[in-house]
Write a structure and sequence with these properties.
Length: 240
């Protein structure tokens, strides 16, 4: 057993390894390269294991849940880290214990877009929306040299505007982060900017159209194309 798996209930890693698909592992290893081990577990199976863990933790204090989430995050397996974030999405009481220091710790070490997006949609975005992170903290991520923290800042706006994630819409905070990264040419950041803007369309189309007009000379072509397609056709990509 890897040293980082000590303290994590053995059945969790075992269940994920049991659900692994070698073909999926090969595909995803190329889709989002990472230094972590990739098992190739489908998302529904990760969530199935998370629900089982959530059931076993019924009645457990939020401090215990948070401690376990941190232990899971340190296991160098992509799906185990994702499970940690899924667990916190189900335990709002544990998530409420997160502040700047703990959020940064949970997000430390990301080296691929899939982990960043899971963390941002399930943890950092909801914590920010619920008041656990000040706006200045998310804004600070936009200035970091680490591309993954810049992507985290943008994807963290998505839960502000997703009804399925409890978001009621937040034009001001979303566009502030988008403005800070409008000219970032890093592909991982540009794709996140596109996602953030496309998620805001359902809240305020006019605000998104205005953003595109104001930043037309600096935003990457990919962002302009995908967001325009979404505005005009309802899809990120046009049908050919």
């Amino acid at each position: 057993m890897n040293k980082w798996e000590q303290g994590v209930p053995a059945w969790i890693v075992g269940a994920l390894r049991e659900a692994a698909d070698p073909r999926r592992r090969e595909v995803t290893s190329n889709y989002f390269p990472t230094a972590m081990e990739i098992l190739g577990v489908p998302v529904p199976e990760i969530r199935k294991t998370t629900r089982r863990l959530h059931g076993e933790l019924k009645g457990a204090p939020p401090t215990m849940v948070l401690e376990l989430a941190f232990l899971l995050k340190e296991v160098p397996i992509h799906e185990v880290r994702q499970l940690a974030y899924e667990l916190l999405s189900l335990r709002k009481d544990a998530r409420a214990l997160l502040g700047i220091r703990k959020v940064r710790s949970l997000g430390k070490g990301h080296d691929n877009w899939a982990s960043v997006d899971g963390f941002s949609v399930l943890v950092s975005g909801p914590v920010w929306r619920e008041g656990g992170l000040p706006d200045r903290e998310v804004a600070a991520w936009t200035s970091m040299k680490d591309r993954w923290w810049r992507r985290t800042a943008l994807v963290s706006t998505v839960p502000l505007n997703m009804p399925s994630r409890g978001g009621a819409g937040d034009v001001g905070r979303t566009l502030e982060i988008c403005h800070r990264l409008a000219a970032d040419s890093d592909p991982m950041v540009a794709k996140a900017l596109s996602w953030a803007l496309r998620s805001l369309i359902r809240v305020d189309r006019g605000a998104v159209e205005g953003f595109l007009s104001t930043h037309d000379s600096v935003i990457p072509a990919l962002v302009r194309r995908e967001v325009r397609n979404k505005l005009e056709t309802g899809r990120k990509l046009r049908r050919t």
